[in-house]
Amino acid sequence: MPENRLKKAEKLNRESLKTVMGGHTCPNNLYHITWNGYHGCCIQVPEGNPCNSTLCLIPVEMCDSGIN
Question: Under DSSP, is residue 58 helix (H, G, I), strand (E, B) or coil?
Fold first, then answer.
């Protein structure tokens, strides 16, 4: 019986596998970036610090210096 269920299963593509396995993916045509241990998405790959760019969707903590 279990083998019948697997016949209809589809193979996951790489992007779907990243999402299922907890990978970091960006919507549409955005570029995935990492900085300071955090992940973000940018319209174009920034040169240097992404915190100086207005073309990125990034968490506030990514640009935090650790001094509050």
Answer: coil
Phi, psi of 34 (to 5 degrees): -125, 145
Q: What pLDDT digit, counting tens, does each position of 32-66 carry?
A: 998 888 888 999 999 888 998 889 988 888 888 75
The model's pTM is 0.57
CA-CA distance, 15 to 18, in Å (whole number)? 5
Q: Hey, is 15 helix, strand or coil? A: helix
Note the residue count of the chain.
Answer: 68
Distance CA 54, CA 7 (A): 47
- What is the rounded distance in angstroms from the CA atom of residue 42 to the CA atom of residue 65? 21
Q: Which amino acid, 60?
A: V
